Amino acid sequence: MKSENLSRFYQAFGRYLIWTILIVGSMLIYLYQHVAVMDLAEELSTLGEEKKRLLDERDRLTVNAARLTHGKRVATIASEKLSMITPSGSPRNIFTVSSSAH
Hints:
Layout: H1 2-68, H2 71-80
């Protein structure tokens, strides 16, 4: 009788232990997934801020490039700093073909 009660006790204890392990394991899996999602959300936020910063920098560089390549500025630097002059007269290396030659 005593051995039968002990056997039932171990069977019941085994079932409770298995259920406890399953519940705790499920909770740990849920916790891990929750932490992983929170890490991804933080990374997404960081990447969004970096994207905004990079877009602002792109806009600033586009404006700066347009300013630096403006024709009047280039002509001023060419004439003042590089001592270049604007050519006068017609260019010597351009040839025209009359329309009657076709």
